[in-house]
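2 proteins. here.
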Amino acid sequence: MMQIRIVNTVTVMLNEMLQVFIGCGSCLENPGTDGGVTVRIALAFGVTVATMAQGLGHVSGCHVNPAVTAGLLFGRKIGIIKALLYVTAQVLGALVGSGLLKVKRKVFPLVRIRHRTMRSSMRILCPVIPTADRLG
C-alpha cells in the first residue's frame, strides 16, 4: 500500500512539473498579441493536460492540479492524507518545473535582434542555441 502511494505521489509530481515546464515555457519565447501566440499557448497547455491525463491518469486518478484534488477531497472521493500528499507533490512539481525553466533560460538566453522588415522600434526575441560548428 505504501509503495503504491509513493508511485502515485511521484506521478502527480511529474505531471505537474511537465505542465509547468511545457505550458509556461510556451509563454516565454515569443511574447506578442497576435492570435498565433494565443493559439500556441492554448494548444501547449491543452495538449499537455490531455497527454498527462491519458498517459498518467490511470496511475494517480488524474489529479492534474490542486483544484481537482481539493474537489475530490470535498466530494469525499479521497482521504485527507492522500489529498495532502498530492497537493504537496503538485506544489513541489510546479517548483521543479519552474526551476527547470529558469535553468533553460540561463543556458539558452534570449537576445534582442532587429528584423529587417520590421520598424526599427519593434524587436523580436529569439533564443541563442549553440550549434555543432560553434562547439568545436
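next one coming up
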Amino acid sequence: MQIHTSFIDITQQNILMRKMNKTVPALIVAGIAALSPATASANPAARQRSALTEQASNKHAALVRAARQFLSTGYNYQGRNTHKFPGLDCLGLVFLSIQHVYGIPWQNWSRGNPDLKPSVLVTQLNRTSKPTLHDISKYSQNPKDLFAKLKEGDVIFFLTTGKLVRDESMAETSEGNDLYGLHVAIYVGNGKIIHASPFSEGTGEWHSGYAVVEESLISFMRNNGFSYFVSTSVKP
C-alpha cells in the first residue's frame, strides 16, 4: 500500500511538473509584457543617442570629403584660398573643411589671424574632450592597432620636441620632454591623412611638390622625423 501511494504521489508530481512547464513560459511572457512599458520608455533615449552618433559620424565623413575637394591646391603659408590669402597651409585646409561642413567661417577660429597657434586650436575644435597623445614607436610591429584608435575626420597635430614655433606645449613624452605642435592634418581612414604639405618627403599618390596631398600617416611621419602626434574629434 505504501508502494502504491508512493507511485500515486510520483504520478501527481509528474502531472504537476508538466502543468508548471506550461505555466512558467506563460509567466515569463506575462513578465516581459509587464516590463515592456519601461523598456519602451527607454528606447527613445537610446534611439536619440544612436541618431546623434550617426549624425556625428556623417559629419566626420563629410569633413574628409570637403578636404578632398582641395587636393593638389598649392601650399602657401597662411593660405586660406582667398584673394588676400591665396593657396592653403595646413590650418587653412582644416578651417575651410570645417567651414564647409559646419558652416563656421574660418575667421571664427583664428579671430582674423590666419596664424592661429595649435595649442589654442585644439581646445577650440573640441571643448569637451582632451586630445589623445600617440607615440608611433609603440606600434612599429602592428600599425593597425594605432589606426584602430583613430576615427575618420579626426584632426591630427604632429608634434616635435623642438620649440620651432611660439606656442605652448601640447603634451609631454614619457621622459617629461615638452612636445609642441608643428603641423596639422585630417585623418581620412585606412591609415591615411590629408593635409596641405610644406614637406618635400611625400609618399602619397597625389604628392607633386608642396600642395594638398593624401598619403600614408606612418610613412609621412617617418620620412619627416615625427614620432608623436595628438588627435581630436571635431566637436565645435
